[in-house]
């Protein structure tokens, strides 16, 4: 969920349009979408979509001819955490899977449990390179299963961020020492500025400081504790706490389900500038025109996803669309030297194996009646 309302930087000539999309796990086909003001709260927008989710839930059950309601799970990131929202999702028939904010009390307990020796264990199958720990506990008044999962990519990114922040913090702390020597900073000012400097990237966890002295003659001592830094890396960095009411799911299934969000992000990348279904440029301004423009974009995203599903291809969306776009038949008007309408002849294109398959899957014979009959028997190399 991301991104019509006034721009947050107060520009009157710019409108920011947010788009929330619910997609299927298989093929990541858009099932429900909402366009909204970009300066609106994501939580509020999701809450406003709950009735639409309920209706979608019922329509899917009816379309599938289910005697019992289907079990469906809504996966989202930590920005959507709310105990009330969890209850509301349950009321409309959705299970929940979310990345719990690390500052939450339940997250702290889960991280402490995962820090015990032997708690983190490798997952089976394709996720054998990932370690995770699991516990069942109360999250507020809710009964939830928590999974602490490691991510090497997240760990590397956080360590890079900490290294950059630490260099800046050291520079600031040395600056404070010079201000102390010149008598240009008070004790209270020093405390506030030190606290602000170490507020970034977990620095306060392993940068030990001691502000002393009097108000007019403060003192500052500081050091980087390598042991505390290593402990931070081993017990907190690179870890997420997943929270779900899918108690019967395996740990690997929970982790795999959460990581499926990457495919939703891929859907948004397709709608950005340079993507296969770019949302812009848009020259509309009114809400109605912007909604219609967004509808056309979502329709395009849906068609791309359905096309990839129908072709059962591992090719990227861009490559798939390029292959389809290159299927072109040439209509030639022949010259007979006689009056009247000139007869035409259709020349079939040279097709790759993937394109020949697409011709059959999408029944393009309906649109090019002779395209199959005049195709060469051998597929050309792409």
Automatic annotation (TrEMBL):
Q: What is this protein called?
A: Transposase-like protein
């Amino acid at each position: 969920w991301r991104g019509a309302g006034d721009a947050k930087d107060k520009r009157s000539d710019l409108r920011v349009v947010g788009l929330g999309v619910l997609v299927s796990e298989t093929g990541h086909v858009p099932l429900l979408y909402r366009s909204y003001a970009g300066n609106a709260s994501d939580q509020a927008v999701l809450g406003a979509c709950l009735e639409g989710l309920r209706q979608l839930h019922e329509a899917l059950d009816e379309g599938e001819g289910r005697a019992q309601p289907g079990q469906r799970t809504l996966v989202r990131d930590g920005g959507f955490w709310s105990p009330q929202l969890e209850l509301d999702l349950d009321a409309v028939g959705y299970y929940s899977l979310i990345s719990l904010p690390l500052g939450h009390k339940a997250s702290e307990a889960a991280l402490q449990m995962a820090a015990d020796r032997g708690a983190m264990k490798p997952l089976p199958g394709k996720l054998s390179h990932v370690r995770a720990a699991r516990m069942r506990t109360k999250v507020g008044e809710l009964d939830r299963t928590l999974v602490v999962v490691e991510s090497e990519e997240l760990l590397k990114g956080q360590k890079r961020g900490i290294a950059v922040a630490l260099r800046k913090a050291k520079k600031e702390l040395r600056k404070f020492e010079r201000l102390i020597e010149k008598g240009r900073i008070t004790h209270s000012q020093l405390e506030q500025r030190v606290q602000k400097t170490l507020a970034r990237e977990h620095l306060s966890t392993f940068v030990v400081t001691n502000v002393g002295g009097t108000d007019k003659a403060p003192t500052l001592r500081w050091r980087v504790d390598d042991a505390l830094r290593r402990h931070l890396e081993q017990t907190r960095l690179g870890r997420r706490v997943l929270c779900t009411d899918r108690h019967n799911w395996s740990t690997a299934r929970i982790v795999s389900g959460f990581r499926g969000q990457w495919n939703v992000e891929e859907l948004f990348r397709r709608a950005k500038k340079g993507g296969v279904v770019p949302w812009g440029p848009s020259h509309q301004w009114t809400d109605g025109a912007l909604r219609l423009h967004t509808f056309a974009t979502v329709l395009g995203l849906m068609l791309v996803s359905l096309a990839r599903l129908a072709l059962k291809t591992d090719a990227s969306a861009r490559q798939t669309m390029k292959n389809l776009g290159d299927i072109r038949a040439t209509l030639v008007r022949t010259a007979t030297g006689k009056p009247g309408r000139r007869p035409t002849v259709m020349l079939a294109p040279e097709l790759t194996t993937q394109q020949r398959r697409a011709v059959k899957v999408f029944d393009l014979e309906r649109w090019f009646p002779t395209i199959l009959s005049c195709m060469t028997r051998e597929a050309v190399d792409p």
